[in-house]
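Two folds, back to back.
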Amino acid sequence: MKRILLLVIILFGVNFASAQATATIVDDAPYNYEDVEVRPEFPGGYNELMNFIGKNFKMPEYEGNGGVLKVAFVIEVDGSVTNVKVVKDLGEGTGAEAKRVISASPRWSSGEFRGKKVRVLYELPIKIASQG
């Protein structure tokens, strides 16, 4: 009887612990940019973000026809930029360069949802002109 009671207590403890871990992961997931009440913003606004990219993006040896590459990243509650990923790459080093530039971004203003600062997922399209 003691073994069965001990087994039930252990199973309950494991189940409770795994439920807590799942809740933490879900609560920490970034919100979509469109879903937050206060959207994060680059210092000086969108035009300054474009200026920052224009000044810091060093065009690699690219012989493509141009197009739009996309970079997704998370703006943390402290405004730092993390988890930079290239969603759409034009190749020839353009995605890697965009990732480098976004990673070097200064802190943004943080996003808020229901009066609480939250992590926000942001997707940024960057237009690359044809080099030919």
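---
second:
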Amino acid sequence: MKGQCVCAATQFEVELQNHHVHSCHCSICRRQTSGVIMTIDIVPGSLKFSQQAQLAIYDSSTWGERGFCKQCGTNLFWRTKDQSYCNINAFALNEAPADLDFGLEIYIDNKPDFYSFAGQRKTLTEADVVAMFQADPKA
């Protein structure tokens, strides 16, 4: 699948791991997007950039980093530093699959009270996510 930032200065191809959309309520995602980000998991190593002169990587934690376009600011992906896991902005895809489903909310304990999504889905707390992705559990 192909995708890009808002201004098209950063373009990529990717293979989706599944069609499950998840949202993140962490403070970084909320600040970065003025809300939540909706993402889709991709096959590890499948993120390939056809245009990347404006691509920037932000070192956002001890185990994760975020990619965005320096020109327009579009948030494109979050991945582990070893690149064993990566998800992309679901709305950066040029044509999203018709069968996407919203199945997971992460950092649910960081979600402000003034909004919520309808329906039921799996949720993970900050501690759940940290336990899954932290490179060194003793750190």
